[in-house]
Design goal:
Blueprint: H1 23-27, H2 30-39, H3 42-46, E1 63-65, E2 78-80, E3 86-88, H4 97-100, E4 124-131, E5 149-150, E6 153-154, E7 162-164, E8 169-171, E9 177-181, E10 186-192, E11 197-203, E12 205-207, E13 209-211, E14 217-219, E15 221-228, E16 239-246, H5 270-275, E17 299-306, E18 326-333, E19 357-358, E20 362-364, E21 370-373, H6 381-384, E22 386-396, E23 406-413, E24 424-429, E25 432-438, H7 439-443, E26 456-463, H8 500-506, E27 509-520, E28 528-529, H9 539-544, E29 580-582, E30 588-590, E31 594-595, E32 601-602, H10 629-654
Parallel strand pairs: 7-12
Antiparallel strand pairs: 1-4, 2-3, 4-27, 5-13, 6-7, 8-9, 9-27, 10-11, 13-26, 14-26, 14-28, 15-23, 15-27, 16-17, 16-26, 17-18, 18-22, 19-25, 20-22, 21-22, 23-24, 24-25, 29-30, 31-32
């Protein structure tokens, strides 16, 4: 649709244009300023009064406790219904083991294997980030919000059928963030960074993705969202997700993830030396990263949801008791196992990870164990190609998850090798365990991988992909190549599930997020807020490879956040009197603590800047911590002499004296 012309955005970090000042007005305090800057400790410069907590967050949400990481007790002769009640278990053999007891990855034994990494005692976590989405009318265009960026670009990954449009993410008047998916065309002329070619295509679906990439990241802690799933529980085709990704890769910017996603190996390994872009075999320090420490971008899927009507123990779910609709909770990590189970089959002894514990109504995801990664730019596939593993459980969902709000939660403990702890990941739905992974089970495979220690950002999106929830087999005479709900050609409509197009034609599917919150343990130094931390810096890498995080036409990966200057016609269009005001010029002016064009976003930032902009110290120059009195006096005298000289020069000019460099050639005096 038509968009109003937006005012020119100025990066707020540069501040307002300074008034013109003469050299005389700046010279006098110069020596004092230089001395003061040198005496200030760099540590003091990095600490700011700021945080990411939404002021609308209820006070009882400012703290939380780690949840018990075990499923509710189940009698051996009972199974679990959707409300947690137990009835009608058929026994302990084969697949029924996982229905009645804690699950071990290989169902050939009846007693689950316990990973040796101990689970810490429950401890209190404090809120470090929240977004309640209570302010209506928020938009998330690049430069509009300090936490989030709404993608406005094509998605070439996973056979995506959609275009991510910035207008499809907004806050409504009911306290929710809405990600809207609709059957609507978008013409795209651009660069396909998967096939590496210019393209002119039409995407027949629009949706939205919010990322906090390079804005808000965290390492370790608890993340939770309360959401209503989009669409209908029994109609497949939508792919809503809530997930985390290491900051070194920016999703949909494919070049940034090659040989980076989803690596979690910090050690020097034979495979990593060629297949991991930043590997532990490099002994030289580059981009501020520690030598000998491998880096990457592991993926933690808090949920990926697949609606549909294929029930458990039928069709492609024949060998598992969890069918559609389901949520998949995963840790995607590289390097992966070379000897691995086949898709749709239960793993044999030694083929998968031991010590996995699932909750009631959860089962190992036997339909997807990971991916084989090959890139067109690779010259030696035998050495550069690699497997990535998806350690994943599916949890049965029901119609209620698409009609009312439910809580989805991840608890992430960062590894602490010095103290012998390998970390863990725990997933929960409404405080009930979905999956538990102890890092020891990954470490013991000996591939160098483990639980992520990378600063990670949050993603919220709904995709439309022919790889996810579409019919497993194409109908007879249906090519399943083009998917267009508005087409008059049957061949472009026959590849959808029954009812999918009718659902989207009636109204857009709305993925509603009531809140997103993150807590951390203030007594755990491993848990940090920030996208570039002392242990895992990313700032210089991103700056040195900016082209990988941009699309054609971008001047930078992210715009600075615009504070005010959005068009307005009244007070309410600037967030109300507490957030901003509409000036007589018809633009918004934000109150302290609020930002965005119309002052609708909380002006948050990291409480500690771990990795600030480069300074002389970064190239080996350390400013003196002590200035001798004589040096201070000498600088002051020099400055005073310079001021006097400039003053005399100005007076001489007023008397008609012309300095030599400005004199006219002989014969031209009047």
């Amino acid at each position: 649709g038509n968009r109003e012309k937006e005012p020119t955005m100025t990066n707020t970090s540069k501040g307002n244009k300074a008034r013109t000042r003469s050299p005389l007005s700046t010279m006098a305090p110069l020596s004092t300023l230089l001395v003061a800057l040198c005496l200030i400790s760099p540590d003091l410069l990095s600490v700011v009064n700021a945080d990411w907590i939404d002021p609308d967050t209820p006070k009882d949400a400012y703290a939380t406790w780690a949840l018990p990481a075990h499923p509710p007790p189940v009698h051996p002769d009972s199974s679990t219904d959707k409300d947690g009640s137990s009835k009608n278990c058929t026994g302990l053999a084969g697949k029924n083991l996982i229905k009645c007891q804690n699950y071990t990855a290989a169902p050939t034994t009846e007693i689950p294997t316990a990973a040796p990494t101990p689970t810490p005692e429950p401890r209190e976590y404090k809120l470090v980030m929240s977004d309640e989405f209570n302010v209506p009318g928020r938009k998330f265009d690049d430069g509009f919000d300090p936490k989030w960026t709404a993608m406005h670009k094509n998605d070439y990954t996973n056979d995506a059928q959609h275009f991510y449009h910035r207008d499809n993410a907004y806050t409504d008047g009911k306290g929710d963030l809405v990600i809207e998916t609709e059957a609507r065309d978008t013409e795209i002329i651009g660069f396909d960074d998967v096939n590496m070619e210019k393209t002119h295509v039409t995407k027949h679906f629009r949706s939205a993705m919010l990322q906090s990439w390079n804005k808000f990241c965290f390492t370790g802690g608890i993340a939770e969202a309360e959401v209503v799933m989009p669409g209908k529980s029994d109609i497949g085709g939508l792919w809503p997700a809530f997930w985390l990704l290491g900051n070194l890769a920016r999703h949909t910017y494919v070049g940034s993830s090659e040989h980076v996603w989803p690596w979690a190996s910090t050690e020097c390994t034979e495979k990593g030396q060629d297949a991991q872009l930043v590997n532990g075999c490099a002994k030289a320090q580059h981009w501020g990263m520690d030598p000998g420490v491998g880096r990457g971008s592991p993926e933690i899927d808090i949920f990926e949801v697949q609606p549909g009507n294929i029930k458990a123990n039928t069709g492609k779910f024949l060998k598992t008791f969890v069918g559609q609709p389901f949520m998949s909770s995963s840790y995607q990590v590289a390097p992966g196992l070379n000897v691995r189970p086949g898709s749709g089959w239960w793993p044999g002894p030694g083929q998968w990870y031991d010590g996995l514990v699932g909750g009631n109504m959860s089962a190992l995801n036997i339909l997807f164990y990971g991916a084989y990664n090959h890139f067109l730019s690779d010259t030696d596939p035998a050495r550069q190609d690699y497997w990535s593993d998806a350690i994943s459980f599916n949890r049965q969902l029901y119609g209620e998850h698409f009609e009312t709000k439910h809580r989805y939660r991840l608890e992430w403990e960062v590894p602490d090798p010095e103290n012998g702890h390998d970390g863990y990941l725990h997933w929960f739905l409404n405080d009930q365990l979905v999956l538990k992974i102890n890092g020891t089970s990954i470490v013991e495979k000996g591939l160098g991988a483990g639980i992520s220690s990378e600063p990670s950002y949050i993603l919220l999106n709904t995709a439309v992909s022919s790889q996810w929830g579409f019919p497993e087999r194409c109908p007879e005479n249906c090519p399943c190549k083009n998917f267009n709900c508005h087409s008059k050609d049957w061949k472009e409509k026959c590849g959808f599930n029954r009812g999918f197009c009718d659902m989207l034609k009636k109204e857009p599917a709305k993925y509603k997020i009531n809140y997103v919150r993150v807590w951390q343990d203030p007594n755990d130094p491993k848990q940090k807020v920030g996208c570039s931390t002392p242990e895992r810096p990313t700032r210089r890498w991103v700056q040195g490879h900016e082209h990988l995080y941009m699309q054609e036409g971008d001047e930078a990966p992210l715009k600075g956040v615009q504070s005010g200057r959005g068009f307005c016609y009244g007070l309410d269009e600037c967030g109300g009197s507490k957030r901003g005001k509409c000036t007589k010029e018809g633009v918004c002016e934000c109150q302290e603590g609020w930002t965005g064009p119309n002052c609708l976003a909380q002006a948050g930032s990291d409480p500690i800047i771990w990795d600030g902009p480069d300074s002389l110290a970064d190239v080996g120059f350390d400013s003196p911590s002590y200035f001798p009195l004589g040096l201070v006096v000498g600088l002051a005298v020099c400055a005073a002499v310079l001021v006097i000289a400039l003053t005399l020069q100005k007076r001489n000019r007023k008397k008609g004296y012309v300095p030599v460099p400005s004199a006219k050639p002989r014969g031209q005096f009047s």
